[in-house]
Design goal:
It is an enzyme of class 1 (oxidoreductase). Its EC number is 1.2.1.3. About 40% of the residues lie in helices and about 20% in strands. It is an alpha/beta fold and about 500 residues long. It folds into two domains: about 260 residues, Aldehyde Dehydrogenase, Chain A, domain 1, CATH 3.40.605.10; about 190 residues, 3-Layer(aba) Sandwich (Aldehyde Dehydrogenase, Chain A, domain 2), CATH 3.40.309.10. Bound molecules: NADPH dihydro-nicotinamide-adenine-dinucleotide phosphate.
């Protein structure tokens, strides 16, 4: 049977490697549950070859002047922009996210980061510091590339994650072996081809395909200097454990259960818009989602009334229709997981179901594309009268499931928002900016917003606190995660200042 997309293989030495696999699996269109492409799992021997390819490329790439690397990466950013819609369509097929999202967010925010790091290193971002100790003695520092690095990505923002990892990695002079999630691997070859066309030398950016086993092999590989991982907390702990045990550098971008705090003076309409953005964008499959929505007790009736009215503006349907703003969940296992949380919320936690639930969405029965009824579609769901001890309030669901909690005082809401072992993101909605800053200062999270949610520009360093991760991506600090420091003291006094001189 011919499939919509060409098979995916490993990519190293600057080209697709079709003889590197002994088994394959299929990537599935979440909207219809139909196969999209055959993906050939990279063997351990071929992973070794990808690492060797990167090792061979490293000396020349790391010695290339930053401004020349910058020019090549800027060309890649321009190619990504020129192919925005084509790549966005691939992402829509693979992830199930509407084209209205992938064409405006996924590729764009990846290309922006590539351009940002290219400009940063081209503009002196790799320069170190100097310190004059005495008139004839100086300390200078240099930033040095790490070597061959591994990038392991999650399935929710495939090309964006691949770019957020590879852009600073390559800009700093490293080489990368990248493993996409087995659920969304299609973008990986498209990105490798863009880099190659832009002039990135063979071996600098490489791809291996497969599941957790491939990721684990790569993360443990003795020739890998750093592992940058995006995924679940539990997987991140395993990966960080095996990598840091070998003194590899690690960056961990992990899960969360973020608090979206509506302060007492907030405009109700704005608060509802914010809470919806924090819960239903990308069908709730965003790591920073504000799934614990805290509202003042007195605001609850009006908030829920307006929320129910605005829930009508969530438009599932044909993913390529520009008006569609809600897609299916990414995969069958994830669909089962999210539905079991909704069921648990109803039957065990006994939260009040305000809307949504586990029933198959009613619009599917009359949809023109009959295959859609096989897809992983769920209803956007809101639970209210929630309490902090409920499982749906405590655990990351990673789906379109909002939990509404009420509070009496600002001090109380801060303490309850922080009462979790994760700390990825948090945000407040209010007209009182003094209060906003005071509350934000007390929230234990690495990424915070005031009167908005979810925007994560290239300039903004992002990373989780507590169990949500280690290190940051993006912004100036994002480059530091891909270099190691060397400090050199230069003595120019003309004589070695020895303590062993003749008395
Ligand atoms: P997983 O942890 O399941 O997988 C992440 C990646 O790790 C995948 O490529 C996966 O491969 C791979 N992997 C699985 N097991 C291992 C292993 N033992 N060693 C090495 N690699 C392994 O996460 P999900 O893909 O389910 O992603 C969703 C999670 O990612 C959520 O928790 C979300 O919050 C988090 N996330 C965090 C972000 C952040 O910036 N903080 C951003 C986006 C998502 P495969 O998929 O093929 O099994």
């Amino acid at each position: 049977m011919s499939l919509p997309y060409a098979p995916r293989f490993a990519f190293y030495d600057g080209k697709r490697q079709s003889g590197t696999s002994t088994s394959s699996f299929q990537t599935i269109d979440p909207a219809t549950a139909e196969p999209l492409a055959n993906i050939h799992t990279t063997t351990h021997a071929a992973i070794d070859s990808a690492v060797v390819s990167a090792q061979k490329a490293f000396p020349a790439w790391s010695a290339t002047p930053p401004i020349e690397r910058a020019r090549i990466l800027q060309r890649a950013a321009a190619l990504l922009r020129a192919r925005n819609d084509e790549i966005a369509r691939i992402e829509t097929s693979d992830t199930g996210k509407p084209f209205s999202e992938t064409s405006t967010v996924d590729v764009v925010t990846g290309a922006d980061v590539l351009e940002y790091f290219a400009n940063l290193v081209g503009g002196g971002g790799m320069n170190g510091e100097t310190a004059q100790l005495r008139p004839d003695a100086w300390v200078y520092t240099t930033k040095n590339a790490l070597g061959v690095c591994a990038g392991i990505g999650a399935w929710n923002y495939p090309i964006q994650i691949a770019l957020w990892k590879s852009a600073p990695c390559l800009a700093a002079g490293n080489c990368m072996v990248y493993k996409p999630s087995e659920f969304t691997p299609l973008h990986s070859t498209a990105l490798a081809e863009v880099y190659a066309e832009a002039g990135v030398p063979p071996g600098v950016f490489n791809v291996v395909q497969g599941g957790g086993d491939v990721g684990a092999y790569l993360a443990k590989h003795p020739s890998i200097a750093k592992v940058s991982f995006t995924g679940q907390v539990a997987t991140g702990k395993k990966v960080a454990g095996s990598a840091s045990g070998e003194m590899k550098y690690v960056t961990m971008e992990l899960g969360g259960k973020s608090a979206c705090v509506i302060l007492p003076d907030a405009d109700v309409d704005q608060a509802v818009d914010g809470a919806m953005l924090a819960n239903f964008f990308s069908t709730g499959q965003v790591c920073t989602n504000g799934t614990r929505v805290f509202i003042p007790e007195a605001m609850k009736p009006e908030f829920e009334k307006r929320l129910l009215e605005k829930m009508q503006f969530i438009r599932p349907g044909d993913l390529h229709d520009p008006n569609t703003n809600f897609g299916p969940l990414v995969s069958k296992p994830h669909y089962d997981k999210v539905k079991s949380y909704i069921k648990h919320g109803i039957e065990n936690d006994k939260a009040k179901l305000l809307c949504g639930g586990t029933e198959i969405p009613s619009w599917l029965a009359s949809h023109t594309n009959k295959a859609y009824k096989n897809g992983y579609w769920v209803q956007p769901t809101v639970f209210t009268n929630c309490t902090d001890d409920m499982k749906i309030v405590q655990e990351e669901i990673f789906g379109p499931v909002m939990s509404i909690l009420t509070y009496k005082s600002v001090d109380e809401v801060i303490s309850r928002a922080n009462n979790t072992d994760v700390g990825l993101a948090a945000g407040v909605f209010t007209k009182d900016l003094n209060l906003a800053h005071k509350v934000i200062a007390q929230l234990e999270a690495g990424i915070t917003w005031i009167n908005t949610w979810g925007e994560s520009p290239a300039e903004m360093s992002v990373g989780g606190w507590k169990q949500s991760g280690l290190g940051v991506e993006n912004g100036k600090k994002g480059l530091e995660a891909w270099v190691r420091n060397k400090s050199t003291l230069v003595e120019m006094g003309g004589a070695v200042p020895t303590v062993f001189a003749k008395l």
